[in-house]
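2024-03-11 09:14:02 DEBUG pipeline.ingest accepted 1 chain
2024-03-11 09:14:02 DEBUG pipeline.ingest length=282
2024-03-11 09:14:03 DEBUG pipeline.predict start
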Amino acid sequence: MIRINNITFSYRRKADDVLTNLSLSIEPGAIYGLLGLNGEGKSTLLHLMAGVLTPNAGNITIDDVDVRLRRPSTLSKLFIVPEEFSLPEISLENYVRINAPLYPNFNRDDMERYLKEFGLNSNINLKGLSMGQKKKVFISFALAANTPVMLMDEPTNGLDIPGKSTFRKVISMAASDDRTIIISTHQVRDIDKLLDHIIVMFNHKLLLNEPISEISRRLAFVESNDAELVEKALYCQSSVAGKSLVLPNDNDDDSEVNLETLFNLAIEKPEVITQLFNHKNA
């Protein structure tokens, strides 16, 4: 269980807050999508959760232990894949030998399996790899660490189209009932089929925090040029098929969530999201 308790953070004392009085509970056994425009504080939040940054106020706990203490027992439960990273110019074998002992649940067979899905093997040297290859290797190692908390910041940046497809596959392979995976991205199409839960940040605050099932229960996503439906729509945007609409789901019908349309609704009409979800995310 991750608890984010009234955190406020700014990078400089007199600078505007990046996050303001943010509270959030994150349960195990789900894949969370952390969405928001650039500059909303998504990366900052992940680094606060990892204990890399310290909030100006409030705290974040994993299993009731404050992450700012950076206890080995806490750090071994989480892994962060930042958007930008570097790897040492050594063999992957040596990298694993040095770093795997930090993660008690690291599984070499899992890493080999993920690497194979990405078209790689463990008999490689990290020196000279392209950025995309390095990301594939790092993601494979990160998932094989089998930490209860996995934090990923823009993980599909730098991956080619087949790599993005494989990323979705290996995340599905790594998911489990006792693991929390949080993926921050603005490339919503890369992860839309993966997610169990959506978090949207707007104006440096929490706007939406709901499971996909609840969003689907309240909203209907349809492609239609029907004038009557367009008139009723909470949100409408042009698409290749005509118009992508978000409608009230008055009949509780099953509706597959169009994550891109939902995100556009949230940032263009945040008041609609607040009203629909009972102001509890305002």
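2024-03-11 09:14:41 DEBUG pipeline.report Residues 131-144 form the longest helix (14 residues).
2024-03-11 09:14:41 DEBUG pipeline.predict end
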